[in-house]
Write a structure and sequence with these properties.
Shape: globular
Largest sheet: 8 strands, parallel
Strand content: 15-25%
Structural class: alpha/beta
Distance between the termini: 19 Å
Length: 401
């Protein structure tokens, strides 16, 4: 069955060859043009789980079904390339204390580790289902998620098994922090993460990640974790330069990681390294919002030609939001991004961070992930912060919202 979605006021395709009208102002660090590939009064044909046709409504072909968008804007489904959704409990008390003046540090993760270890599989699965559904209602059709709150071979592997049954992009993050029982022997914990834990987890994951940060893992430890994962066929990504200047970004580039995530504290050398590589800088403004930390400088990255992604970092400690629209508004207000750049980063940028070519765009052959907004333009995602603008969501060709 084919479905025509027509009378879309303004459609973001992320395919520059499809754009109608004159080039817009610069929307990425790569130069002038219209990377959003905007089409006015647009239509999309969905055939099965794929996009079969995109163009102006007046030129749309006949289909089995027809949906009138009634002048709403259309965008690709958001690609949230960084989240931590397999956990139990919350950290309300920690957040409340932090908002009363206590600074954030990585140690709070141990609270969630204790709650997650105590939860059974059904509780963890139900929580994950809840957060995925919550994100879908807000327009997220592709979501990466990680382990990292078990920190034993059994708990990490069950987290990944539960996640792999529900989402395509699953990341092994045994190296989130040093497990509490190894606090006095971090080298032994690295041996566990790169040995028996990796053996148990690799069959369920696509990616390997490490928190390369003061209070977590240093450069040598992080390199060992990523190298071991890569030998098992996992692709690398890095939690890098969130809390301080450090080696994370340079390590990500050195190992050809798909993304360096956070990128809050960057030297000129870090930015040059990213600009000369295929590593995406994934920015997570929810974390800065929730911890009152320094905002990443997206403008500096974009102007240097770095590919930028925006993601939620949904987790119970430092960014308990699944709302990519909220992150778009923060990026525009506080990180120097234009509305065009922020939407591009939350769709095509996220796809690049996951090395996916089937999502993050609305062009022929792409997965049919379409979001309609109760607004005439994607700019309203930043213009009307906090307003639930998502009115319809198709994921893999099926209407979910």
């Amino acid at each position: 069955m084919t479905t025509l979605v027509t009378h879309i006021a303004s459609l973001v395709t992320n395919d520059p060859s499809l754009g109608s009208g004159p080039p817009r102002s610069r929307t990425s660090g790569s130069g002038e043009g219209d990377p959003l590939g905007l089409i006015q009064d647009a239509a999309v044909v969905i055939d099965g789980d794929r996009i079969a046709w995109v163009g102006e409504s007046s030129k749309a072909p006949a289909t089995d079904n027809r949906v009138d968008a009634e002048g709403r804007a259309g965008i690709p489904g958001f690609v949230d390339s960084h989240s931590h959704l397999v956990f139990a409990g919350d950290r309300t008390a920690e957040f409340n204390a932090r908002m009363s003046g206590r600074p954030y540090s990585a140690g709070g993760i141990r609270t969630t580790v204790a709650a997650t270890r105590a939860a059974d599989d059904a509780e963890l699965a139900a929580n994950l289902d809840r957060y995925l559904a919550e994100a879908l209602r807000q327009g997220t059709t592709t979501m990466e998620t990680k382990s990292g709150y078990g920190l034993t071979a059994a708990d990490e592997s069950r987290a990944l098994r539960i996640a792999a049954a529900r989402t395509d992009d699953v990341t092994y993050l045994g190296a989130h922090i040093v497990a509490p029982e190894y606090a006095d022997d971090p080298a032994a914990y690295v041996d566990l993460v790169t040995g028996p834990m990796l053996d148990a987890c690799a069959p369920h994951a696509r990616w390997v990640d490490v928190f390369c940060e003061r209070g977590a893992f240093d450069a040598d430890q992080a390199r060992a974790v990523l190298a071991a994962g890569m030998k098992k066929g996992l692709l690398p990504r890095v939690h890098a330069n969130q809390l301080s200047y450090g080696p994370g970004v340079q390590l990500a580039v050195e190992l050809g990681a798909a993304s360096a995530d956070h990128c809050t504290h960057l030297t000129d050398a870090d930015i040059d390294a990213l600009a000369q590589s295929d590593t995406v800088a994934t920015l997570l403004p929810g974390a800065e919002f929730s911890t009152r930390a320094k905002w990443p400088d997206a403008r500096r990255l974009l102007d240097a030609g770095v590919t930028v992604a925006l993601a939620s970092d949904c987790n119970p400690g430092s960014s308990f939001t699944s709302s990519v629209p909220f992150c778009i508004a923060l990026a525009v207000r506080d990180m120097g991004m234009t509305p065009d750049e922020a939407v591009l980063a939350a769709t095509a940028g996220g796809a690049a961070a996951l090395r996916r070519t089937d999502v993050g765009r609305l062009s022929v052959g792409a997965r049919a992930d379409l979001v309609l907004l109760d607004a005439p333009s994607h700019v309203h995602l930043a213009y009307r912060p906090g307003v639930p603008l998502v009115s319809a969501v198709w994921k893999s060709g099926r209407r979910e919202v």
